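Bench log, entry 3. Co-assembly request; chain sequences pasted below exactly as received.
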Amino acid sequence: MARRFRGESHHKVDNKGRVSIPASFRRVLEQGDPSYTEGLNPELVIVYGDHRRNYLECYTIQAINEVDLKIDALPRGSMERRMLQRLFHGQSFPTAVDETGRLVLPSKLRTKIDLESEAFFIAAGDTFQIWKTETYETEELAKTEAWLDKLPEDFDPLVYLDNMGQE
Amino acid sequence: MARRFRGESHHKVDNKGRVSIPASFRRVLEQGDPSYTEGLNPELVIVYGDHRRNYLECYTIQAINEVDLKIDALPRGSMERRMLQRLFHGQSFPTAVDETGRLVLPSKLRTKIDLESEAFFIAAGDTFQIWKTETYETEELAKTEAWLDKLPEDFDPLVYLDNMGQE
DNA sequence: ATGAATGACATGGGAATTCATGGTAATCAA
DNA sequence: TTGATTACCATGAATTCCCATGTCATTCAT
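Structure output for the full assembly:
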């Protein structure tokens, strides 16, 4: 089974904040939760960040543990450590998938990203993101479009796959 | 269940100094108290430090035990040991959560951090902090802003997670 | 092949429980 | 005895739990 999220999809959000997680994402969450076993509900951590961020980033337990280890390795009292602690320990919300495969987003989180009736899930490597559909379309897509527009007509982004570690 | 605190939230403080602890923090306090059992109230230790510190740092019993062990390992009579003893043994306050999930902050502690009607709780790894809401907003956030301003426009603090152990 | 049975998935509703918060009475210490 | 601390009770709002339904895609027996 894959350890990485892949794919994107739209899901309804009801007025209790419940929203289905794409089934394939659930498999990854299960894999990434050391204490998960058949029949249980995988846990995960939602990092929402400060006011500048308008989406939710979801981490498997494994992924967040790795982050924690890195934070612990930074010198106590350093600004870097404080910043990261605030983000990953403070501005985050630990939760679990429920038995019907849903996540419950408390209104605090929904309000933060202005989520109403539909959420957009998109994989991002070892995490996935939850956006308000409209936000994603207007902001993210526009941003990428603009970026691509600056490049030559026939530019292929795949070149980035090749020249790595040499610049 | 997690042994680490995660999340942040605001809570009312009444004129008796009572304040609800975020429910998820309570779960961690329960986990971290060796003598806790279902139905009991978990204990914890609040470290308030000297006059320079304007927030309260809360430790689970386990966490404070680990600190104690480390202090015991320092040479008797050393300055380091004395300093740490003053902080963790002297400038601290052992207490317990009450049956309704609240903490009672004696006026000495409230005065120290100038706490009035609202407290801000924020996780910090294996401890959590209690701030006066306004203090946190003006001091902590301002400090971060200032720090971020010194960095390049498009700098992402998350790089600190990656280039570790190589500089 | 084909209609029926199976099972995972997305979504909804209501009841039961937990939470955050406030008030009052009882207890304590000086 | 008086101000403070602790124990008890109360309540609305939010959250969790449990159950139900519709839709696919897959399997299976005929």
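Chain B touches chain A at residues 2, 4-8, 24, 122-125, 144, 147, 157-158, 160-161, 164-165 (CB under 8 Å). The longest helix of chain B spans residues 133-149.
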